[in-house]
Amino acid sequence: MKTSIAPAVRGFTLLEVLVALVVLATGLLALAKFQGTLMQDNALSKQRTEATMYAQQKIEMLRSYSLMSTYTGMTSGNDTITGTSSSFTRTWTITPHTTSTAPQYTTVAVTITWTDNSGGSQSYTLNTNIAANDPLNTGQLIATTTTTTVPTSSTSSTSSTSSSSTSSSTTSSSSTSTSSSSSTTTTTTSTTTTTQCVTTVSGNTAKNNDSVSSSPAGTCTHDNKTYSCSVTAARDTTITLTELNGSSVQSTKTTTANCSTVTLNM
Q1: d(CA 263, CA 265)
Q2: Distance CA 266, CA 254 (A)
Q3: What is the dihedral of CA 244, 245, 248, 249, to 10 degrees?
Q4: N or C: which end of the chain has fewer CB within 10 A?
Q5: Which contiguous run of DSSP H or E holds residue 253?
Q6: Per 3-state DSSP, what percentage of the chain is helix, strand, and coil (rounded to 5)?
Q7: How far is residue 94's CA from residue 106's CA, in Å, rounded to a whole number?
Q8: DSSP SS3 for 90
Q9: What is the pLDDT of residues 132-191, one digit of tens each?
Q10: What is the pTM of this model?
Q11: Who has greater pLDDT, 250 or 93?
Q12: How far apart are CA 195 and CA 132, in angstroms?
């Protein structure tokens, strides 16, 4: 009688299973850590956006004074704001620059501090200058004087006096002539008046962290994909905005000064 031997059946050993579990657990831990870091970065980005908004809000409050007594009475201070993503401490520092000659202005530095979700300390500072312009004057008048000299034609007058004497043997005569001229100068003065005002241009940049510059030059700030520029220019003149990534020009757009606010996305 013949007996047949069944072929051996191979399976996974306990060691192989343990190695597979270790590899799987390492991958899951790395994925969990990446997810936590991503959530933390998103929360920090939201907090920075809020901090920028609160700093710009305080600067606009200080800039929108209605009386010169309010401007000269500006003092440093601080307050606490409960935001949607964190609690923020806002501190502003006022530094007046008073000189005998124009321009007179005040430097304002607003610093926002908060604690992020990981317990770290974060801060954001925004600096600007506020000019000492009386709000009762709707604009600054700039007078340009041109002087033109127009000469007139010269006039001459001649007077002659003659005398003669006669003798028996000699006759002599003499003549004296006198000339005079006069010149008249006419001065014409023309005055050209231009109204200057502040136009605030704001909007979104095409890329994150790109900066924006303006022509005429103004005060520009940016954060992530938002920017704001305050430009002093004559009404109805052209303002040119340029988006920069480092020193590389990304785009250029123009708008018209309207002595108010303009929204312009780059």
Answers
A1: 7
A2: 10
A3: -30
A4: N
A5: strand 248-256
A6: 20, 50, 30
A7: 7
A8: strand
A9: 888 777 555 544 444 455 555 444 443 333 334 333 333 333 343 334 444 455 555 555
A10: 0.42
A11: 93
A12: 16
